[in-house]
Design a protein that fits this description.
- The chain folds into four domains: 110 residues, no CATH class; 124 residues, no CATH class; 110 residues, no CATH class; 165 residues, 2-Layer Sandwich (Nucleotidyltransferase, domain 5), CATH 3.30.420.10.
- By secondary structure, the chain is an alpha/beta fold.
- The relative contact order is 0.06.
- The chain contains 19 helices and 14 strands.
- The protein is extended.
Amino acid sequence: MGCYTEVLSSMMRRAMESGAIHGVRVAAQAPSVTHLLFVDDSLFFTRANVAEAVRIKDILARYETASGQMVNLGKTTVSFSRGTSMVRRVAVAEVLGVRIVDVQDKYLGLPTMVSHSKKVISMVIRDKICKKLQVRLAREVLHLGIRWRIGDGASTRVWADPWIHGTQTRRVISPRTNASEDILVNELMNEEGTGWNVAKVGELFLPFEQERILRIRISDNKPVDGWCWDPERDGIYTVKSAYRLLCAANDDAPGQSNDKTEQALWNKVWKIDALPRIKIFFWQLCLDALATRANIANRLRNGADHLCPVCNGFEESCLHLVRECGWVDWVWEGVGMELKKGVGFERARNKWVFEGKVIQPDAVVRRVRGLLREMLEGQGANGGGAAGESEGHSEAGDGWVRPRVGEFKINVDAGVISGVGTGWGAVCHDEGGGVVWAVTEQEVEERDPTVAEALAVLVGVQEAKRRGMTRIVVEGDCLSVITDLQKRKQGRSDIFFIYDEIFNVCSSFENCVFSFTRRNFNSVAHTLAHIDPWLVGCRRWDEDVPHNVAVCIANDLLSMK
């Protein structure tokens, strides 16, 4: 076909040489261009008159006859320069038999019309490069945090896809040996697809990967595999988590560190039983991010005063603010060593600097003690737990609450014992507080604690369904799981497969309510989850429960409301 295009070019060149058509010039001394031929498109340049349009149409007709190809007039258009009258435009278009369009904005990604400035072209090229870099960066971020969530295992490739939760790359690093490269995850399951083929997993994978794979629970609903975003608990991508992931990958996260020891220290700091503003103050102090005069002077670099406004003798650094200033020494002496959690002198310092109010150290001491007293009283009201944890929230008040008439209450709990496995416990009470049944189940896999709590709820509702119950209240001490179930929260992580199973079982009940309780009012289920953890399997009791469980039941009855 190349010879025909050469013939077409030759005919256009001869027409130009004879003066029948005129091309365009990019500069005064540049040669005329009459046509540009591409793989799927062709561009022709002539003057806007009927005579040259007739000659172009004649050349194309001869090309069609010689090559056997037809010009698709439906996809062919003609454009004119701004100075061309409408009458001439219509006449030329009628001769060619094509439709008129405005000047094409772009062709092959670049503008077709440019001024003397080449800035437009450079901006287009820059934008194309930026878009490609953004796409590449987005792919790198996704590779850092995305993995397959295993359902039926029919869509996930064992060796090529990321699917193992809890490893750095989420991909298999065990040598493939003689295994097929295209093997799917469902080929690692038993024939029924309800669990793992332990022997095959042990044959193909290294010990640590065997452990991780066997921890992946196979859902009874057999859902299809799907993508999930590992950095988020619900498996749904967020820009915030992606940013943190990139910072961690580049070892440049502000206020954080990839060092495990330092990260563990920060985790403990945020869990301290203290007011949020005190923890934030401590965080800013460690990062040297407080608005001290020294920091302000270093930032502005305008010769601003950097001396301490209280003692007026030393540079006001973060260390001076909390330890070295003589005024602060009086505060420390007043509150005592055991009360150093309260950093109340920052407020006094700000009043001194910005309002001109001189605050005496004994006033700060009284304020710190007051804050500490309020914090301790608040912890007592919340059961001694930090804000946000299950111990600090209770729908059950100050005692175990019996179910309403016609309902049964099922308390559930889970326990993960390192080196042993995971256990679940569930106990059912009637409206009088009596035990109707109890069940415990143990396995050798160590589940994620939150996943284990969700499985405890599943064990409880499955047992209730097996016994033909219709109106139940399911009570647990894991706030996040109970809240998710109450809100019927949707997500893409593994735990939502368990939620789907729970909702599927609950659809058979007339009424099913999820309720949160404090851990000290969930002792029976907690004891069941930890009883004889080495006895793998399921055990059930109707009345004669083990002695230590009976003691917990008696304690609940004493506190019953």
